[in-house]
Amino acid sequence: MTIAQNLNRIREQVEELAKGHPVLVLAVSKGQPPEKIREACQAGQKAFGESYVQEALQKQALLSDLALEWHFIGPLQSNKTTPVALHFDWVHGIDRIKIAERLSNARIQAGLPPLNACLQVNLSGESSKSGVTATEVTALAREVGKLVGIRLRGLMTLPEPTADAGLQRKRFAQLRMLKESLREQGIWLDTLSMGMSEDFASAVMEGSTIVRIGTALFGERQLKP
């Protein structure tokens, strides 16, 4: 199937599952050549997710003629915060106030509008994954919410891989309830970034507003980071 066919199929599935609530299909283009991004754009896709800064910057330069929205979805190190702040519209994985402060300062110094951001929550407790715990997220949200150069939009999670649809929905429901709890505490959030190629159906049914789709759209990755 072509990228356009895959995109249409995914969007139809998402729309059917969402039952009226808006969901952005974020095309995860890390590891994919610029030609595939251009092909997806021609099919109507505008939002793309990248995890490696240098790879992303090279693609952005080659695709500068397209009006694309760029999301940084990978782990973020302190020495990469400035290029991410200057060249991306969204960051999905903030889990430390230090990183948020550096992103905010870079946006302010460049005269750019606030950077859309999600806090990463580690619900499965895996030591190999970044993210704050559910008990830590409120304090981080309050601190990030004070930053002028950041617009805190919501929460993101990467639960453990599983084919158990019940466990998938449980994890995604936990994030949804966590967002609702923060809203009740006066922390305004409108975004749940959860669900990938293998589990986006469960995520959408639990209220995801951004699903990150890579291999189901593009096929296997072709570039090494």
SSE diagram, text form:
Blueprint: H1 3-18, E1 24-28, H2 34-42, E2 47-50, H3 53-62, E3 69-72, H4 81-87, E4 90-94, H5 97-110, E5 115-120, H6 137-144, E6 150-156, H7 165-184, E7 191-193, H8 200-205, E8 210-213, H9 215-218
Parallel strand pairs: 1-2, 1-8, 2-3, 3-4, 4-5, 5-6, 6-7
Helix pairs in contact: 4-5
What tags apply to this protein structure?
alpha/beta, TIM Barrel
The CATH superfamily title = Alanine racemase
Number of helices: 9
Overall 3D form: globular
Q: How many beta-strand elements?
A: 8
Structural class computed from helices and strand pairing? alpha/beta
Any idea what the radius of gyration is?
A: 17 Å
The domain count comes to 1
Share of β-strand residues: 15-25%
The percent of residues in helical segments reads: 40-55%
- Major sheet attributes: 8 strands, parallel
Cα(first) to Cα(last) distance is: 26 Å
What are the low-pLDDT stretches, counting only 5+ consecutive residues below 50? none
CATH fold assignment: TIM Barrel
CATH architecture verdict: Alpha-Beta Barrel
Lateral strand order in the biggest sheet: 7-6-5-4-3-2-1-8
Average per-residue pLDDT, rounded, comes to 94
Order of helices and strands: HEHEHEHEHEHEHEHEH
Regarding CATH, which class? Alpha Beta
